[in-house]
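Lesson 9: reading folded outputs for more than one chain in a single document. The general rule is that every protein is listed as its sequence immediately followed by its structure tokens, and records are never interleaved. Here is the first one.
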Amino acid sequence: MELFWAVVVIATIVAEMLTVGLVAIWMTGGALLAMAAAWFGGSLELQLVCFFGATLALLYWTRPFAVKFLNKKRSRTNVEETIESEVRVIERVSNSDQTGKVNYKGMEWTARAVDDADIFEVGDFGIVDAVEGVTMRIQKKQK
């Protein structure tokens, strides 16, 4: 079984090198622990528990830090920058009437309310909650 786990270690390292997206590296740690369990004569069940347990633990506790560290230079897209921005309503926003337009930095966007019951009148301000295609989903501004 040690050979099997060694192959898994190599395969996950190669997969990680090909994807460069923090996809398989967590399984490498699990496979290393399972290989150690096999080396010391652990049962197949123990090896599997070590593999899955270590993989899930590494994913849960280290992935958020690794993603944050590796994505330091990632810049937000234009759409991501609109989230939580304030927009001005230039056409009544009513989900039931399927109407609505807002102005964001001089650009006109189709708009719908996050809450179907909310209605925004011309001149009102809203906060962008999400962007779905070319439609901004807006919510009432908190006072």
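And here is the second record, again sequence then tokens.
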Amino acid sequence: MSGPVLRYDKMVEEALRGVLREALTICREGLPGNHHFYITFRTGHPGVEIADYIRSRYPEEMTIVLQHQFWGLEVTPEWFEVTLSFNRVNERLHVPYAAVTAFADPSAKFGLQFQVDGIATTHPARRHTDCSADSEMTEGPAEDSDKQPPDGAEVIALDAFRKK
């Protein structure tokens, strides 16, 4: 008997993205207590809208931090938008949930990883990127890079928040 194939993996993936969507919806006016979110997404994914200088610096993936300083968080069933400060310049980001590869709330010791379909990468990301409303754009250490984070910048690896 042939017919539609039940793609449980896709169903679970969409349900988990719903957790991110719901968390953002609840926190549109600010995050309660010590909650803060790390959201990692593919910058080259279709529908991602970020400033050209940010995309050129992070052509594959970047992580944003929503904590104290973010503005205009808009949440829809398909995407979210938020304004963050990058090197003291406010920029609007438009991110479809389909572009998100990871979501974490370290204060709750909670994290999710997602599969992103349709993205062909010629080489895997070598460095972790942290673009936060509370800090300047920074890069994690990489052996092949002589760039260093600005003084006082904090580089955070999401691995610490992932369940093993």
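What the second record shows: The chain has one domain: 33-118+127-161.
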